[in-house]
Design brief:
InterPro entries: Peripla_BP_I, SBP_2_dom. GO terms for molecular function: carbohydrate binding. Its main location: other. It holds the Pfam family Peripla_BP_4. Strand 1, helix 2 and strand 2 form a beta-alpha-beta unit. With about 300 residues, the chain is of the alpha/beta class. The protein has 2 domains: about 160 residues, Rossmann fold; about 130 residues, 3-Layer(aba) Sandwich (Rossmann fold). The N terminus is likely disordered. The chain is elongated, with a radius of gyration of 20 Å. A 6-stranded parallel β-sheet has the order 2-1-3-4-5-11, with helices on both faces. About 45% of the residues lie in helices and about 20% in strands. It is built from 11 helices and 12 strands.
Length: about 300
């Protein structure tokens, strides 16, 4: 542990000393094939427009499950000597060594959306995310409020072990179990594939005709879940809650297929992520954790300014 701290301190000094150097800020996300991550791109692009000294690149694998591809993107960014990295890690362990190498190479790293494992916490300078545990609890509270007092609630999750999933789904589950008599079914993991989530939800609905609630824990999973609910003719007869806020999910809320969606500040993740790296490169101190927030959107508030600022 002492060695790591010494390396970290030395790197921090080197980063500060190199603050005047211009260069590329690499924004690397879990996948580019998602409106959520494209909204992160919009936020990052908005931030870089205000900066003269740096440029920005945006990249990610074809799918969130392509973890090795994301590792390679980080390694490539290090090899080409970028000035800083904004990273949404798809796996808390697999991305750790690459982040460690980046920091030891005097490249500041800001993590967004999903945490790395605790052993790598000295390898990056800031973590920007929804408080996923608080968000999961908020969705669970809504479920308890809207669903029957007893019965089954299914969890349609995405990638097991991802930092955001651990907090979001774990705290949803814990809150339901501690505050209700509802029975948890699942979780089922879609690997963030909409078609997989659709098929899984179809099977869950068929096997559990007495289901009183269902939770889709990220964008592609919630979209697949919503489509399965419509196809099964179950819209409106169980409490369906989603996570994230693309056009499909917004329409499901308007149509009453989903009771509500918990929407993260994806634009803010990109914007604040780039701004935070720039601050580090300028030698400024930054907060270790920055909460980018979540808004619960339903039919009543979907057209409000608060909701429209996070929907995409």
């Amino acid at each position: 542990m002492k060695t790591v701290k010494l390396i970290t301190a030395a790197s921090a000094l080197a980063i500060s000393a190199g603050a005047v150097q211009a260069g590329e800020i690499a924004v690397i996300v879990k996948t580019t094939n998602s409106n959520f991550w494209q909204n992160v791109n919009k936020g990052a692009s908005a931030a870089i427009e205000e900066v003269d000294a740096h440029t920005m690149s945006f990249d990610g694998p074809a799918a969130e499950s392509n973890i090795a591809d994301e590792v390679n993107l980080v390694e490539n960014a290090i090899n080409r000597g970028v000035a800083g990295i904004v990273l949404a890690p798809s796996d808390p362990e697999a991305l750790g060594p690459a982040v460690e190498r980046a920091y030891q190479s005097q490249i500041p790293v800001v993590i967004i959306d999903s945490a790395l494992s605790e052993q790598y916490q000295d390898s990056y300078q800031a973590f920007l995310s929804t408080d996923n545990c608080a968000a999961g609890e908020a969705v669970a509270e809504r479920m308890i409020e809207k669903a029957a007092t007893t019965g089954k609630v299914a969890i349609m999750s995405y990638v097991a072990g991802v930092g955001s999933e651990i907090g979001r789904v774990g705290c949803f589950t814990d809150y339901i179990e501690a505050n209700s008599d509802l029975e948890i079914v699942g979780p089922y993991y879609s690997q963030s594939q909409m078609a997989t989530a659709l098929n899984q939800t179809t099977d869950v609905l068929s096997a559990n005709p007495d289901l009183v609630g269902i939770f889709g824990a990220n964008e592609p999973t919630a979209v697949g879940m919503g489509r399965a609910i419509v196809q099964a003719g179950r819209a409106g007869d169980l409490v369906a809650l989603g996570f994230d806020g693309n056009a499909d999910l917004q329409q499901f809320v308007r149509d009453g297929v989903l009771d509500a969606i918990a929407v993260q500040g994806s634009f803010a993740m990109g914007e604040l992520g780039v701004e935070t790296v720039v601050d580090i490169l300028d030698g400024e101190s930054v907060e270790a954790f920055i909460n980018t927030g979540v808004v619960l959107v339903d039919q009543k508030n979907i057209d409000s300014d608060e909701a429209q600022n996070v929907l995409y």
